[in-house]
Design a protein that fits this description.
Elements: E1 2-3, E2 10-13, E3 23-26, H1 37-43, E4 49-52, E5 56-58, E6 61-63, E7 67-69, E8 72-73, H2 75-96, E9 102-106, H3 108-119, E10 126-130, E11 148-154, H4 162-174, E12 178-184, H5 192-207
Parallel strand pairs: 3-4, 3-9, 9-10, 10-11, 11-12
Antiparallel strand pairs: 1-2, 2-4, 5-6, 7-8
Helix pairs in contact: 2-3
């Protein structure tokens, strides 16, 4: 059922299997709170799923923050929206009795997840970033010691330059995150290769 509480329109699916980290599902531009639920169920069956809808509209399409042009972000808006999302996750953890979630974000959702790691590292237990970019040009050092992060980029991605994705991986590593960055032979859209790789990574995380 879609909820309108806690500051975000969202969906929550309770855990069906114990001992698995909850997933915070963050959709891409034009998605909504239902968009990534099938992906979440596939990636880590039985995990609790928390899926908010981005509160920004761009030409009628939900996003998590504003952009000025393709690949040019409104950084002041990012900081405000990240604070809002951090508050939502804290409220949802209390309301639904959840452990710190692992974010699974695609495109715009991956970028807001990366910004959460860089600005509010206490919010996430880890992240799967699908086609992310550097969300903010400068951020203060934070303690991400050992925080697991999987980044999956596309070799033929027309939106995310390889150097940009590489710079994000290095920034997260510099703050102590345990980053695995892989480039798949795909474009910007999600592929079966993403599902297979991310599912295996999350299964390993849950078993650790």
């Amino acid at each position: 059922m879609t909820e309108t509480s806690l500051g975000f329109v969202h969906r929550f699916v309770p855990a069906a299997a114990p001992g698995r980290p909850p997933l915070l599902l963050l959709h891409g531009t034009g998605g909504d709170e239902a968009d990534l639920l099938p992906l979440g169920r596939t990636l880590l069956p039985g995990a609790a799923l928390l899926s908010p809808r981005g509160a920004v509209l761009e030409n009628g399409m939900p996003r998590f923050f504003r952009r000025l042009a393709e690949g040019v972000f409104d950084e002041a808006d990012i900081r405000r929206r990240v604070a809002d999302l951090a508050g939502f996750v804290a409220g949802a953890r209390a309301a639904y009795d959840l452990a710190a979630p692992v974010a699974v974000g695609f495109s715009n959702g991956a970028n807001i997840a990366a910004a959460l790691l860089l600005l509010h590292p206490e919010v996430l237990a880890g992240a799967v970033l699908l086609r992310p970019m550097v969300p903010l040009r400068e951020t203060p050092p934070v303690d991400l010691a050992g925080r697991p992060v999987l980044m999956l980029s596309g070799a033929a991605d027309p939106i995310v330059p390889a150097a940009n994705a590489g710079a994000l991986a290095e920034r997260l590593r510099a703050d102590g995150a345990a980053v695995t960055h892989e480039t798949l032979p795909v474009g910007h859209g999600l592929s079966q290769a993403d599902v297979t790789r991310a599912g295996a990574w999350l299964a390993g995380l849950a078993a650790a």
